[in-house]
Design goal:
This protein is mainly α and 172 residues long. It contains five helices and no strands. GO terms for molecular function: fluoride channel activity; metal ion binding.
Length: 172
């Protein structure tokens, strides 16, 4: 007796273009422009910090750029989250342009990794790991302070009744 083959389950026919059902990304040129502008500014500031000479295994310029980015990004995020006076469109543009663009261009985790790796490979493992740990700890402290300051600034602006401007510059 010949073994019987199991029945083939019925499957729906495959779509001729498997990507046709996927939604295309919504590319908004206004957001792209503010991220680009912010990134250009952040990268220029970071370049200025690269001119600061290192202090042993501690690359002062990279450390300062990364800590400033942590402080500013956390402060901006907290301020925008706590501020009822800024509309959602303004928050989106500020978050993308100043946060993602400028702070993203300012911070440089790849340079940090390269500097730590270089220190370790050159026989200064303790200094490289210490630099990495100090950057991480100081970054957390800077972000914590930035979040605190951003929340306080938003609350103060709300209490004092600071009037935001409409498009065109007139007061609301």
């Amino acid at each position: 007796m010949a073994p019987s083959t199991p029945p083939v389950p019925s499957t729906p026919p495959a779509s001729p273009t498997p990507f046709a059902s996927k939604r295309r990304p919504d590319i908004r040129l206004d957001l792209l422009a503010v991220v680009f502008a912010g990134g250009t500014i952040g990268t220029a500031i970071r370049y200025l910090f690269t001119q600061v000479p290192p202090s042993g295994a501690f690359h002062t310029g990279t450390l300062t750029a990364n800590l400033l980015a942590c402080l500013c990004y956390a402060g901006l995020t907290a301020y925008l989250a706590a501020s009822p006076r800024i509309g959602s469109r303004g928050k989106e543009l500020a978050s993308r342009g100043l946060g993602m663009g400028m702070c993203g261009g300012l911070s440089t985790m790849s340079t940090l990794a390269l500097e730590c790796f270089t220190a370790i490979r050159s026989g200064q493992a303790a200094a490289g790991i210490g630099y990495l740990a100090a950057t991480f700890a100081a970054g957390l402290a800077a972000a914590t302070f930035g979040a605190w300051a951003g929340t306080r600034l938003a609350a103060q602006a709300d209490r004092t009744g600071a009037t935001p401007l409409r498009k065109g510059g007139e007061a609301r």
